[in-house]
Design goal:
Helix 4 packs across helix 6, helix 6 runs antiparallel to helix 9 and helix 9 runs antiparallel to helix 12. The protein is globular. It has 12 helices and no strands. The protein folds into 2 domains: about 50 residues; about 210 residues, MetI-like fold, CATH 1.10.3720.
Length: about 270
């Protein structure tokens, strides 16, 4: 009986948690298909007046396709660069002993403790000197610089769990260090790489603060910045904002769907050893 009660209690808790998680998304989706005159009406099931006008307005009047493209380019390019640099640094930190190794890892961790506001003014001036303001290239480089330290430490945890004997066997077979890394270590660490890629992509995709400060031109705005078009000083266009949120969820859902099995196994295997 206690066992049955325990299972029932777990089911109840999980159901409540699921409702709290899914309901905001459902409510956004419902609001996005309401006619403008019914946006503030309280009903939980779409009625016969459901419409896609908010989505048409999103791409026809606000040109959100351009902003979606900008965010996809920046997020994907930054994530691939982060993975490329991170795996090289992670391999070095996991396999080699050298002077200053502890200081480097401490510096990587320290960068995650510094609020972004502190580095905003120097970063803005640097981008200005390099003529990279209002540029997707400049924004991508900023994302890469911010993500590489944490991603390197994350990947180091995955690589540490791979037996060094695999590297040694590859070296005996005639591989050099780079070949051993990319032909032997990388395939084994693929779950961790996938998890790190997803983490990097989501962080870049959702980032608003830097994109809002560094990008001013309309054609280079990213998706999160463009969503602010629906929020004014004294009004919020709930239909358009909800439609934008639903569209913005799609890329992350696709990425998670394609890599979910790698992410789950990777996160469980990538715990950093002491």
């Amino acid at each position: 009986m206690l066992t049955a009660f325990g299972k029932g209690g777990k089911f109840t808790v999980l159901t409540i948690w699921l409702l709290f998680t899914v309901f905001p998304i459902y409510w956004m989706g419902l609001t996005s298909i309401k006619p403008k005159r019914e946006v503030n009406d309280l009903y939980y099931i779409p009625n016969s007046g459901a419409t896609l006008d908010s989505y048409r307005t999103l791409f026809r009047d606000y040109a959100f396709g351009i902003f979606l493209r900008n965010s996809l380019i920046v997020s994907l390019v930054a994530s691939f660069i982060v993975i490329g640099l991170g795996i090289l640094g992670a391999y070095a930190l996991a396999r080699y002993e050298f002077t200053g190794k502890s200081q480097i890892m401490l510096a990587f961790l320290a960068t995650q403790m510094i609020p972004g506001l502190i580095a905003l003014a120097p970063l803005y001036l640097l981008m200005q000197k390099l003529s990279l303001l209002n540029s997707l290239i400049g924004l991508t480089l900023c994302y890469v610089g911010g993500m590489v330290p944490f991603s390197t430490m994350m990947l180091r945890g995955f690589i540490q769990r791979i037996p060094p004997e695999l590297d040694e066997a590859a070296l005996i077979d005639g591989c050099n260090r780079f070949t051993a890394l990319f032909r032997v270590v990388t395939p084994v660490a693929l779950p961790g790489i996938a998890a790190t890629f997803i983490f990097s992509f989501v962080q870049c995709w959702n980032e608003l603060f830097l994109a809002m400060i560094l990008i001013d031109s309309e054609g280079n705005k990213t998706f999160p910045v463009a969503m602010r078009s629906f929020i004014g000083g004294y009004w919020i266009e709930w239909g358009g904002l909800s439609a934008a949120v639903m569209v913005g969820i799609i890329p992350t859902v696709i990425i998670f769907g394609l890599m979910s099995k790698f992410m789950i196994s990777g996160l469980s295997a990538g715990i950093v050893k002491g």
